[in-house]
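Trying the structure run again after the queue cleared.
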Amino acid sequence: MRLSLRNVARDSKGSSLLRVAAAAAAAGSGVAFANANADNKPELSIGVSAPLRKQLERPWHIGQITDSRPAFLSWDHLKSGILPAFSFRAIPAPPDDIKKEVPADTSESPKQCPQCLGRDTIATAAARVGPAVVNLSIPQGFHGMTTGKSIGSGTIINNDGTILTCAHVVVDFQGLHSSSKGKVAVTLQDGRTFEGTVVNADMHSDIAIVKINSKVPLPTAKLGSSGKLRPGDWVVAMGCPLSLQNTVTAGIVSCVDRKSSDLGLGGMRREYLQTDCAINAGNSGGPLVDIDGEVVGVNIMKVFGADGLSFAVPIDSVSKIIEHFKKSGRVIRPWLGLKMVDLNEMIIAQLKERDPAFPDVKRGVLVPTVTPGSPADRAGFQPGDVVIEFDRKPVGSITEIIQIMGDKIGIPIKVVVRRAKDSLVTLTVVPEETNLDI
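Done. Tokens:
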């Protein structure tokens, strides 16, 4: 589309022509050409794209010229048909029904979008949790001789001095005899030092609780929810790598449910948050924080020889472990003796293609293996069963089964399974407590 403007009234400086050209330049890319017609009347033609027509029809306020060259357009340029390059900061005139008032106090900072990542977002999140992050140090050695120390990080989660950390930081499990006798040296961000005591530790989840006593209030961090995290969300890892206190690194969530089997870890099923935050020796036990300044995980390990592969225990799992500590002093884990696999539409379609007798289900949990002599074996489970109900509740994932089972030990649970040719079977299983050899 081309817009032609003739008989443009101009003053001594040609300001009308300048306003038209500036509007076109500010609205987007276009071509401007000027000449004089047969009557020696100035004519300005501007070539612009169709979507800009409405923009040009609106009134405009012309701002300052942003180019460093002289801010004028001479008549010689118009007669020659060549317009010099220029750039304007143009601001559309607001509608008449909208009037903005200038705030009286210009020193007030503009309101921040809660869901937006700004220049201070990460710094603000780190500042909220930072005072509650501590450095932990535990002497280690043989037969009373100190040969080194275990270093790590922790987070004060209660003003009574409760510190959340990793079990491998404060508990001996590598054959080294700790000379600390359950005592931990704790250093706060402000430099205060305390002697802490290991209260609870669960080696399977690698979560532990340390307690310190203080006569003055202690800073605390708020526990958030890891269930709201998505791949790509920004997170902050905090701690004391190599005993370098007050270290902050940032990254994104790479995976929200990285399975322990994916990492080659044996034992019971565990899930981790995978991030690309930089962590090193000494970061273990430190908090993983979201941009709201809430703890969403406990940093636990990294993959050596690889960059951007760090892992944390989700805070939702940690909260359940803490509840077990408070209730029983240990984590109670029911055991059925089943290996299970979550089903989805694609897996179901593939299984039906391989075996036409596979049960006709839309969701459920497949049982590929049953441990001989286990509670599930005694209840009558068979390889190939698809669990569709657990304790009278429909289920479609292993996580749902674990949540329903909770810490039920020795309590009969009704389970409905579908088998080949769509046969429906109801079984009764009595969970036993897991016997973890740690």
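Residues 148 and 313 are 27 Å apart (CA to CA). Worth checking whether this holds up in the mutant runs.
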